[in-house]
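User: Teach me something about this protein's shape.
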Amino acid sequence: MASSYRQDLKNGRMKEWEEPLREAIAKIEFVIEEVYECDSGQSDNSKDEGALAEKLYLAKRFIEEELPKRD
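Assistant: First, the predicted structure itself:
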């Protein structure tokens, strides 16, 4: 039985996918930092910005869980 694309990705055999996914993580991290650095001074905006940062963090985590672990 052949391995799935997911198994191949997790085992480091999908370099053509791994690189763009790691780049996506870096871009998500950049936006998270930008969101936290912006201070509008309005508490209602802060709540929305916090929600956005949380969702971006979750997206980052979901992608990281599918990638091979780096030492």
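Now, about its shape. Residues 43-66 form the longest helix (24 residues). The CA atoms of residues 29 and 46 lie 18 Å apart. If you'd like, I can walk through any region in more detail.
User: That's plenty for now, thanks!
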